[in-house]
Amino acid sequence: MGKTNYLIKKVFIIITISILICLLIFNVTSPKADGSSLTPHGPSLVCPSKISDQTITPLKNTKHLLVSAFMDQRVPGFDIRIIGMFERDSIQPLHCLFCCVGHLGETTPTNVLVHTDHFDFPFAATDIMCQIPPNCDATHVTLLTEPIVENEPTLTWIPIRNKKTNEKIKKMNFTVCISSLFGEYNNVLQYTQSLEMYRLLGVNRVVIYNTSCGPDLDRLLQSYTQEGFLEIVPWPIDKHLIPSRGWLYAEHGGDIHYFGQLATLNECIYRYMERSRYILLNDMDEIIMPYQHNNLMSLMDTLQKQHPNVGVYSIETHIFPKEHFEPSGRFHLPQWSGVPGVNILEHIYREDPDRHRFHRYKLIVQPRMVEQTSVHEVIKNFGEQYIVPSEVSRIIHVCLGGTIPLELHHEDKRLWDFHEKLIPNVDKVLKRVGMMMSKN
């Protein structure tokens, strides 16, 4: 009888331990009510809080917003750069708290750097610099308004990107960063033509920060994402701030310039800093076009040999007014007649920029030589900058034109040099997403 009781007790203990282990595993790995989750192999075992899976994360006890954190040791005295959007009138001392492998790290002070280009809006793109404490293999970081940790379970962590690993990553040559897609924008034809032109010029990846767009354009973008050519970064800034649709606060109002454009451009540079040799900062209706080379790599190889210390190349914008059409109708193609948007091949008349006033440039940068960028110029960089002559490269910007009479425009058919490959490539994509009519 005693032996039987002993066996029963032993079985009971084994069952109890098994149940406790299962409950522990379920508690660690199951989703929480707010949608976040704690993984059994992640830092959450040491730092029992939620890890943000959002691209915009509110900072507790402030009006500020955090975007991403990156390992960045190019500035002496700092290891981490956090990109955020801060209210300029409520900057206060902040402290970095790190989640280390195996333990919770100490807090370290921050240096808050508000970007100088904010166009007088209340919120501005902001860098928060801090140092990792000794003996900490940091995986995640958060910001505190006090140097002492209180209410640790309520903290929200953001992952640290660009950590050095033993894994060798093959760099892409060219990444295009497109910011601030919003509204019911549905310019499918021009988007397709631009993306296919980028591909012909040697671009490996396009990144779009998307707040919202029209249904047809969304279907197109999802198709490009599935094939790996496009990365869509969700950008729900309208859930946190009142974004401006213009660049000047006095005229357009709102909380932040142009849907947080400066935050997205800087975030994109750091996101691809270790993955791309060059980054192009331009809008989707703009194509950085070589005029003496067949592709971007030939252009940049030539420029780098001529200017080896340059990390920022400024490309002059030239407007091709979409209200002026090429008269022969050569590329007014019937299969595109039902596709919403602008046909860039039909617009060959180019305006000269007024160089006596401020005129726009867009940028090709080596990301590791950039610290902060604005829209038309880099604010902080580690190398030299160079304005590329317009006869070497210029931006083809098909959009609403100015007030210059048509007879003062220049005929520019550079896009036509690519039509034999561009047109069938565009046709293929539009057929794939079910938006192209059959040819007559």
Brief overview:
The chain has 440 residues and is an alpha/beta fold. The protein is built from seven helices and 22 strands.
Report on the architecture of this protein.
With 440 residues, the protein is α/β, with parallel strands linked by helices. It has 2 domains: 43-161; 172-432, Spore Coat Polysaccharide Biosynthesis Protein SpsA, Chain A (Alpha-Beta Complex). It is built from 7 helices and 22 strands. It has helices spanning 2-29, 188-201, 215-227, 249-252, 261-271, 296-306, 419-432; strands at residues 50-51, 57-58, 65-71, 80-87, 95-100, 103-114, 123-130, 138-144, 156-161, 172-181, 205-210, 230-234, 276-281, 286-290, 310-321, 349-350, 361-365, 370-373, 378-381, 384-387, 393-399, 410-411. The strands form 4 sheets. Strands 10, 11, 12, 13, 14, 15, 17, 20 and 21 form a 9-stranded mixed beta sheet that branches. Strands 3-4-7-6-5-8-9 form a 7-stranded mixed barrel. α2 packs across α7 (419-432). The radius of gyration is 26 Å and the shape is elongated. Residues 19-44 have low confidence and may be disordered.
Q: Provide the succession of SSEs.
A: HEEEEEEEEEEHEHEHHEEHEEEEEEEEH
The proportion of residues in beta strands is 25-35%
Uncertain runs are 19-44
| Tally of helical segments | 7
Number of domain units: 2
General form = elongated
Integer-rounded radius of gyration: 26 Å
Structural class: alpha/beta
Give the end-to-end Cα distance, rounded to a whole number of Å. Answer: 93 Å
Number of strands: 22
- By CATH, the topology of the largest domain is Spore Coat Polysaccharide Biosynthesis Protein SpsA, Chain A
Rounded mean pLDDT is 89
Helical content, roughly? 10-25%
The level 1 CATH classification of the largest domain is: Alpha Beta
CATH architecture descriptor text of the largest domain: Alpha-Beta Complex
Main sheet summary: 9 strands, mixed
